[in-house]
Amino acid sequence: MITKKSVSRRRPIAVGNWKMHKTVAESAAAARRLSRLLSGIRRLEVVIAPSCTALQSVGATLKGTRLRLAAQNLHWENEGAFTGEVSPVQLKEVGCRYVLIGHSERRRLFGETDNVAGRKVSSALRQGLNVIFCIGETLEQRRADQTAAVVREQLEKGLADVTGGSSDRIAIAYEPVWAIGTGQTAAALQISGAHEMIRRQLTEIFGPDSSEAIRVLYGGSVTSDNIAELAGIKNLDGVLVGGASLQTDGFAAIVKILDKMKRQDEKEGSEKCIFC
Question: I want to staple 178 with a disulfide (CB 3.0 to 4.6 A). Which of 19, 91, 135, 139 is the partner?
């Protein structure tokens, strides 16, 4: 019997995390230019995460475009005496569709634990936000051959209260801590191996059907110079871009290359026949 090679139903995604950069005016201007540069992108989902102060302005700028707005963090409560925090309800009000949770900088610099990340994931999903859940090991943990154990614990605790019915609103961003902001990118074989491991663990947590909808991204010094190599990794569903997303034209180039290569993969996958 001859059948067509199966093609993933997961929509590829590119996320730009602007971190603590750009004023409100600069953020809005960058969003406007980015929406023009990427107006022809249809298959790939594009998300940008500006600083909290710029969310409302960027949200208004993105209305009517194909780009989506993300927050970089949130509190797990909808309201309360939590000075300096922002709630999922407030994020939805300004147009956020996504929120980053568990980023290594939140874990490393601000002491966020796996359990705290889990509470945030549950809260975001309850309020209808999509989650980009960040996980990854440090250099010391990789050298000690602890990557699998670290990633497993982060997934189990971070997704402990997530049911299969909402798993399709989660994307996992594998970001090895040693490759973030260092200019050092994990080798394709390392990324592929980590993604396969993550996919197996997601299957154990949610079962094969629900886990199949979860996108697994790579984040770790992604640039326009290495995106073609990264896009060639067969089990990569997208990228989380940090510093390189601050340059609007550069981020647009990353998105266009990723979109082109993923469309080629889909075309080849749908046309190729195999004996089974």
Answer: 139
Question: If we measure between CA atoms, which residue out of 184, 50, 175, 153 comes closest to residue 104?
Answer: 175
Domain 2-275 fold is: TIM Barrel (3.20.20)
- Beta partners for residue 267, in sequence order: none
CA distance 220 to 186: 7
Residues sharing a CB contact under 8 Å with residue 229, sequence separation 6 or more, in sequence order: 188
Sign of the CA dihedral running 115, 73, 134, 243: negative
Produce one character per residue of 207-226: b if its CB has 16 or more CB atoms within 10 Å, e if not: eeebbbbbbbbbbbbbbbeb
| Residues assigned a catalytic role | 103, 175
Per-residue pLDDT in tens (0 to 9) along the chain, 276 residues: 323 334 467 999 999 999 999 999 999 999 999 999 999 998 999 999 999 999 999 999 999 999 999 999 999 999 999 999 999 999 999 999 999 999 999 999 999 999 999 999 999 999 999 999 999 998 889 889 999 999 999 999 999 999 878 999 999 999 998 877 777 778 888 899 999 999 999 999 999 999 999 999 999 889 999 999 999 998 899 999 999 999 999 999 999 999 999 888 777 765 554 433
SS3 90: helix
Q: Bridge-partner residues for 174, per DSSP?
A: 135, 218
What tokens does 172 get?
Answer: 């996992």
Quick one: tokens of 131? 């989650």
